[in-house]
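Troubleshooting entry. The earlier prediction with pyridoxal-5'-phosphate gave an output that would not parse, so I re-checked the input for stray whitespace and re-submitted. Clean input:
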Amino acid sequence: MSGQVDLDRYARTDLEVRRGTKWRRYGATAIAAWVADMDYPIADEVRGAVADLLGADDLGYPDPALDRAVRDAFAARARARYGMAVEADEVVLVSDVVQAIYLGLLAFTEPGDGVVFLTPAYPPFASAVAETGRRAVRCPLVRGDDRYEVDLDSLGSLVRAGGCAMLLLCNPHNPTGRSFTRDELEAIAAVALDAGLVVVSDEIHADLTLAGATHVAFASLGPEVAARTVTLSSASKAFNVAGLRCAVAAFGSEALRERFERFPAHARGSVSVVGMVAALAAWEQAGTWLEAVRAHLAANRELVSAFAERYVPATYRPPEATYLAWLDLGAYGLGDDPTAWLRANARVALSPGPDFGVEGRGFARLNFATPRPVLEEMLERLGAALGGRGPSTR
Ligand SMILES: Cc1ncc(COP(=O)(O)O)c(C=O)c1O
């Protein structure tokens, strides 16, 4: 139990019969540690708000007042928690963060423009850039002594040489779990200001910043930076309601919002009343639940670190945020994508490193947002398989 919230409630056998894609894909054949959903019970406040809607058969079109309430709740929270100077009038609801990335690319760049992002990268970054006919400019993070680091010199020269119009930032960073510091973000912002980039900052994992780190919102760096920044967020990741589809785009200037809203509202799609009610309850009422989840994740992170200390000691850098562990399994000689071998030999399903770009060859991403007994079993299985194989001598 974490406070009043029993985050270890579900056993592996309960999870294996779930209908969501995380557990559906491999069923009982492998413990699911891939897609970024958590295995915890959702917050009572969120369940209650959705149950009230269902209980009252109140599933009609949402009233604009509800849309406004969600935007107000996000703006108030972003101001209070992350120091962003954002007003509800500059917030737009979208169905999901990835949709807003596509729309942002179409609204703020032209075909052929360069779009820079830090790699390895959450896979939709590269596909959104490619599918909208923009050019991906990849800036690899560098493995430092304690954490992955931004190579600022390389970022500056890639932006200058690459004809970039946009920076697609992911902070906290998926898959490395980096929570970029104020100094790092200020240096990144200097590059963006110098080159006149629009910055789309995907901060969906901000609320999952773990003990030891503090989330710094890119748009909080000052008015000049905010004016060129679009912050994307959602309750979906931190409150584990990704299936409900409700996200926000917060614009640092009216001009950016107006450019985004040139896409007619009906073409942008709409958000369901269930998604809105859940987001509102999450942001306004589920703070205690979120604290319990963050504490549980921080403890799970320790278990993963102990595992990594044993099996990938030289290369592992623990995440500062998120529930994702980025594992370099290159030493085991399992090829570019170690995940098929892990599914067959450890019966655990991780995300393939190469999905995150060439920088992910030989890596796998492990999702540790699961009840403690499930994580223990997962790590035991992985340890037995990797221990049996041993690092490659080739
Ligand atoms: C960095 C990042 N952005 C966006 C998403 C997906 O958000 P949505 O479901 O709102 O598109 C994820 C999901 O894992 C993510 O890790």
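This one parsed fine. The radius of gyration is 21 Å.
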